[in-house]
């Protein structure tokens, strides 16, 4: 089933923070992990992901650093900060309330 992309726009930060809570990741790794974990429902483009990463970093929820890969290529990794962990907890709580309210209206299937 094709999912309306507008459903994703409000939850991208929640998804990114959730993945980074597990381990530091670089951009392409976030894109592939999200696609695999969501059974390809969430297939972000770089143009969608990087503005989210930059905004979270600007807000202090993430920090970035460069690290050389075994191939010799330098990659920018993103790590969640304590502020990001608090933001993740808030977003998870908000998501729970939102999902519950939607279920109240449409009914559980």
SSE map:
Elements: H1 6-9, H2 12-22, E1 25-26, H3 27-37, H4 46-58, E2 62-68, E3 74-80, H5 82-106
Antiparallel strand pairs: 1-3, 2-3
What report would you give on this structure?
With 109 residues, the protein is α+β, with helices and mostly antiparallel strands. The protein has one domain (6-106): Orthogonal Bundle (Arc Repressor Mutant, subunit A), CATH 1.10.10. It has five helices and three strands; from the N terminus they run ααβααββα. It has helices at 6-9, 12-22, 27-37, 46-58, 82-106, and strands at 25-26, 62-68, 74-80. β2 (62-68) and β3 (74-80) form a beta hairpin. α2 packs across α5 (82-106). The longest helix is centred in the last third of the chain and has 25 residues, at 82-106. The chain starts with 5 loop residues before the first helix and ends with a helix. The model has no long low-confidence stretch (mean pLDDT 92).
Strand ordering within the main sheet: 1-3-2
**Total strand segments:** 3
Task: State the CATH superfamily name.
Answer: Winged helix-like DNA-binding domain superfamily/Winged helix DNA-binding domain
Based on Cα principal axes, name the global outline: globular
The CATH architecture classification is Orthogonal Bundle
One letter per element, helices H and strands E, the order comes to: HHEHHEEH
Largest sheet: 3 strands, antiparallel
CATH domain fold name? Arc Repressor Mutant, subunit A
Strand content: 5-15%
How many DSSP helices? 5
